[in-house]
Design goal:
Helices cover 65% and strands 2% of the residues. It has 186 residues and is an all-alpha fold. Helix 1 crosses helix 4.
């Protein structure tokens, strides 16, 4: 509850957010924060760990209806994953810009709940599940297609933190290729 209340405030104030503001947002007394966390730095580390956890994104992906067309499923997935990246970026960017650095003991898998590879594997697995209804039409196994989709989604160019290509266009290029239907490759 404390971490969930603190994350939006960290996005707004960075490490300068006060424990008083966090307590108010959580509807608790400020002393309660220090019964749960040793100090504000530990709370900020916990907020970063929560922001990068893939659980929320995986739940969003798992809630996408499998009976809709593949393009629609992938558009919903892309939007959910872009929101996940935006949440992570807002917290990490605000903390970094305000000078917060994780303590030496708060690195690695224990601080984040799981390692990067495990996190990506859970997201890739959830995207592969979205591909399963169409697995007979896929050129590669669903896990490989999911990895390619994530690579395309996460590597797309951005201007002012916004993707330069709309989600629907990205999914169309992913599913149908880069060439217009009447174009002939040279």
């Amino acid at each position: 509850m404390i971490v969930k209340a603190a994350i939006p405030l960290i996005g707004e104030y960075g490490a300068a957010v006060t424990t008083s503001k966090i307590a108010q947002a959580a509807g608790i007394g400020e002393a309660t924060i220090f019964r749960v966390f040793a100090d504000k730095e530990e709370l900020l580390d916990a907020c970063m760990a929560e922001a990068i956890r893939p659980d929320h994104a995986v739940r969003e992906l798992s809630s996408i209806a499998l009976d809709q067309p593949l393009a629609d499923r992938l558009c919903e997935a892309a939007e959910a994953l872009q929101a996940h990246l935006a949440r992570m970026g807002a917290v990490a960017g605000s903390l970094h810009a305000s000078g917060h650095r994780r303590r030496d003991g708060a690195t690695g898998e224990s601080a984040r709940g799981m390692g990067r590879e495990e996190s990506m594997a859970s997201i890739r697995g959830a995207v592969a599940e979205l591909l399963e209804p169409d697995k007979e039409a896929l050129r590669l196994p669903a896990e490989q297609i999911a990895a390619v989709f994530l690579g395309l989604l996460f590597a797309q160019p951005r201007v002012d933190d916004e993707p330069t290509i709309a989600v629907r266009e990205l999914v169309d290029v992913f599913l149908n290729g880069a060439l217009a239907t009447s174009a002939e490759p040279s």
